[in-house]
Design a protein that fits this description.
With about 250 residues, this protein is mainly α. It is built from 11 helices and 2 strands. The protein has a two-stranded antiparallel ribbon. The N and C termini lie far apart (about 50 Å).
Amino acid sequence: MPNQESFEEEVTPALSEKEMDELDSFLMSDATSSEVMLLDCLDGFLTAIASGPALPKPQEWIPRVWGPTAADAPTFASAAQAERITDLMTRHMNAIVWSLQQDAEHFEPVFDLQVYEGDEREYMDGEMWAHGFMTGIDMQRTGWKALFESKHGPVALRPIYLLGAPEITEAEETLVETPAQREALSRQIPESIGWIYKFWAPQRRAADSANGKAAGNETPKISRNAPCSCGSGRKFKKCCGAAQVED
């Protein structure tokens, strides 16, 4: 019989704190370029991919972690190190997918904490996380078009856009000037991710059905009066199916 520790590892595929530190240390090391995504940015990038319309294969998204060009590829000390870092990143992606499937409305992003001179308070700062998320969208921008054109999509995306878009208007810049403003927007992001994940759920199910598989809790077909496959306990029409009705 498996012990409790192995059972928890099987149920919760998240990286351990030690493994997260290992991945973080490599991303910040001299083996990577100045264009590499650090841990909070990587978490946002992977969350965009996991919550979006389609899940690309690791060989499609991993190169973008290192930077926008092939010249940004890291210098691994060995093939074993390359395999280890790749494994940590793909496992972190799988953990994000799992977390969203279990409870998308209470998703916990990996945000940074910032302290500013003359201010003793620590501020939650999702700016780099949001930059990673926007980079993930840019990787599949055509696929995200339906959300951009939907009634509620731009509203859900707004805190992420304000914090992470490469360019915003002068009027929008006044909304992210202070640490308190950025923290307030960062606190809105988990709710946005829940909505975005549910918005794309039908398309992910259709893609999985076309590929002859079902991903996690997402089933190819579901009655609108059946319990929602996201695990919320509500009927599909009142949960993930609501995005289809509203948009």
